[in-house]
Amino acid sequence: MAVTSQPRSCGSCHEMRPEYTTWTVSTHQKVSCVACHIQPGAKNFIEHKVEALNQVYQHIFKKYYLPIEIKGEIPSATCLQCHSVRRDVTPERDIKIPHDVHYAKGISCMTCHRGVAHGQISEREQTIDGKFDRWTPSVARQQLAPQWTSLPMKDCIECHRQRSGPRNCEGCHKEIRKPQSHLQPGFVDQGRHGVPAAENPTECERCHSITNEPIVIKAETPVASYARANSFCYRCHQKEPPGHDKTWGSRHAVVAAQSQRLCLTCHDSNQAPKSARATKTSCNSCHNGFHQNPQRGKEHPFTLQSSQRPGPTCYTCHNQQTCERCHITKK
Fold first, then answer.
1. What is the pLDDT of residue 305?
2. Are residues 15 and 109 in the same domain?
3. Residue 153 CB contacts under 8 Å (≥ 6 apart), including other chains
4. Do 232 and 124 sit in the same domain of this protein?
5. Could you tell me the CA-to-CA distances from 23 to 27, 49, 235 in Å, in that order?
6. Domain check: are 226 and 328 in the same one?
7. Of 319, 311, 204, 198, nearest to 263 (Cα)?
8. Is residue 142 part of a domain?
9. 200: in domain
10. Is residue 195 a contact partner of residue 188, using CB atoms and an 8 Å limit?
11. CA angle centred on 102, ends 96 and 107, rounded to 5°
């Protein structure tokens, strides 16, 4: 009995080598297999040993199925033999996790810590090929990467959304450290964040992936697609920038000539459907043969004074000679 309760006994079967090897490089390497996989009590211990006879039969006659899975989830009571719910923070990050609150809400330990010992290799079907010899400590460490041992932020947000938990940054993080780039003047209010965002939107995703519903927006540029689909970005992008005042109509051509991509983050070239979450104003609402309609020949896309004559601002878009056909400057 004592021999079969040792971890090396579990690792003696080649089909258990993935589980054994991942355990040896995990944070639980000093916790025996039976401490987690057999519930406390003599009755549970004896029942497990009887079940183990069936496992021996499956091993000898190769009657096991891949991937190998445990029967049922490890209960929180097993974890609480060593751990306490009076923990407020994980040791490696600044995340505030009141375990007692989660435990009182009926959230089991395995909900968040499922991959702590084996990196969820069974759930991810990493052993289904039956190539057990490849499971070296190096491979095992790769399988215990943070994305397989820790709960991703999106899962936390989704759970908090369903249970009406806090979804603001301060609710879960002790300290909000902004990257150095975010501290530059005008990074947000003057739109300078758009430059690095345009280069690599996935970098923004590391912190700003807090969209509460699955939204897919196919805009004219990848950056626009991201900005309109992510709720963190869109709550600002749906507002008119401070620079878009009454004189913006006469000034926007200079900015657009420098980088039309900036315009297309919020606007589209053509009239966009409502599902695109773009502004109603499109480029072609003015730049599409505006003067071809005789009834509009005397109109302009923005207000002009009656005494105002063509000038440099007009000529950023129009040909001077064309304007002067109607607008003859009085001497």
1. 63
2. yes
3. 209, 210
4. no
5. 8, 21, 44
6. no
7. 198
8. yes
9. yes
10. no
11. 135
144 pLDDT higher than 50: yes
Indicate the burial class of 117 (C-beta count within 10 angstroms; 0-12, 13-18, 19 or more).
buried
- Domain membership flag for residue 218: yes
169 part of a folded domain: no
**What is the per-residue pLDDT across 59-92, written as a single tens digit (0 to 9) for each?**
888 888 899 888 888 999 999 999 999 877 666 6
Tell me the β-bridge partners of 173: 95
pLDDT digits (tens, 9 = 90+) for 5-18: 677 778 788 899 99
- Tokens 């190769």 locate to 62
- The CATH number given to whatever domain includes residue 19 is 1.10.3820.10
What is the tally of structural domains in the chain?
Answer: 3
pTM exceeds cut of 0.70: no
Flag whether pLDDT at 303 surpasses 90.
Answer: no
Q: What does the block give as tokens for 127?
A: 């052993």
Range of the domain at 330: 297-331
Tokens found for residue 138: 């190096």
Q: Which token pair is 206?
A: 């590391």
Note the pLDDT of residue 25.
96
Supply the pLDDT for residue 291: 46
Write down the number of H helices and E strands in the chain. 17, 0
Roughly how many angstroms between the first and final C-alpha of the chain, as a whole number? 111
Same domain, 64 and 40: yes
